[in-house]
Amino acid sequence: MNKKLFAIIGSPVAHSLSPVLHNYWFKKYDIKAEYSLLDIKEKDIEIVIKKIRDKELNGINITLPYKQKVIPFVDQLINDAKSTNSVNTIFLDEANTVVGDNTDVFGLQAAYLKEISNTENKKALVIGAGGVSPSVIYSLQKSKIKDIAVINRTHEKSIFLKKRFNFLNVLNWTSLKEEVSKFDIIINATSLGLKNGNDFEFNFNNIKDNLIYIDTIYNPLETKTIKFLKENKIKTFNGLEMFIYQGQKSFYLWNKINPEIDQKLVELLLNKLK
User: Fold this and answer.
1) Which residues does residue 166 pair with via DSSP β-bridges, in sequence order?
2) Nearest to residue 108, comparing CAs of 256, 13, 215, 260?
3) How is the chain split into domains, by residue range?
4) What is the pLDDT of residues 133-162, one digit of tens each?
5) Which one of 67, 122, 177, 256 is the catalytic residue?
6) Architecture of the CATH domain 4-103+246-259
7) Do 4-103+246-259 and 106-240 have matching folds?
8) CATH of span 106-240
9) pLDDT tens-digit map of 201-240
10) Is 123 a catalytic residue?
11) Cα first-last separation, the chain
């Protein structure tokens, strides 16, 4: 039996722990498979999708900046990918159709949003309008949060998001420091804070005491912003749980096995992030 091949595509991808996650599960469930990193240019997306079509690759995850850019090359969007127009998992189905799905929505809900009570009365701010932002907005919507705003450095991208989610309030980036005081939930859906990258240029001084701050970044586990908020007794979540849950669903789509999230796996990931 030939070894199955899986990968994550994006640029950059060096920070991703997806190979650690999936290779752990392959070993645990005795699946002859390997998962690797593919740092590719946009022009190479079509070549990678052709490898799925030709069964040279069995499945891929997609990270920034290609979650929307892969869509023209797939045959069919299903489930949350259809609702968000954002894809993070691709596979070939039994009818040889290249299928795009989205497991980020499930990841966010399973990791954090199910824990939040009285969601109907909460106000949420999504910082960023890039690849993961549609998934974040749709997750909030599915969690019955009605008052959702988006803010992005490039205003046009926020306006584009509003075309898909017409209930969104669009805010100006220059007012971010002032706007944060109005929200119960803030989700960072940008790459600000990513390891070896830039972070927010200000501290979140002006916020509600009962704020819930969620970061989609997991490397590092503690961004400068999370560190500051923790010191000020604000409830924070990094992106690690979301990452694990989205990976769990991707693994199921590819292998029809719902893998266990055990303590050994969590410790393995945490050690990699030290």
Assistant:
1) none
2) 215
3) 4-103+246-259, 106-240
4) 999 999 999 999 999 999 999 999 999 999
5) 67
6) 3-Layer(aba) Sandwich (3.40)
7) yes
8) 3.40.50.720
9) 666 888 999 999 999 999 899 998 999 999 999 999 999 9
10) no
11) 37
